[in-house]
């Protein structure tokens, strides 16, 4: 994922739990209407909606928006291409995480078997 180090022109993300659409727009250099459009185009982008349909973004949403912005504005991807790239990287991350969990479980089971044999 892209962090502030990869987007040197963007301000660092504050340590807050929720951000309004205006705050996210400033943090990501994107206008609010563009953020609302991206919500329709990218299924990974799902801010919380509260009273009056107000959007509240979390840190992972801000990081995702920065990644989308980079793909579209800096790397020249189309919306469809960026969507495909994000879903592909998400699948790779899920697979890697699953493999790590399986390896950890296997080690724990082997340790348990060793303990039971003694």
Describe the structure.
Mean pLDDT is 85; it is low at 1-7. The relative contact order is 0.12. The chain has helices spanning 21-28, 32-41, 59-74, 79-117; strands at 48-50, 54-56. A hairpin with a 3-residue loop joins strand 1 and strand 2. The protein is elongated and about 65 Å long. The chain has 118 residues and is mostly helical. It has one domain (21-117): Multidrug-efflux Transporter Regulator, Chain: A, Domain 2 (Orthogonal Bundle), CATH 1.10.1660. A two-stranded antiparallel ribbon has the order 1-2. The longest helix has 39 residues, at 79-117. The chain contains 4 helices and 2 strands, in the order ααββαα.
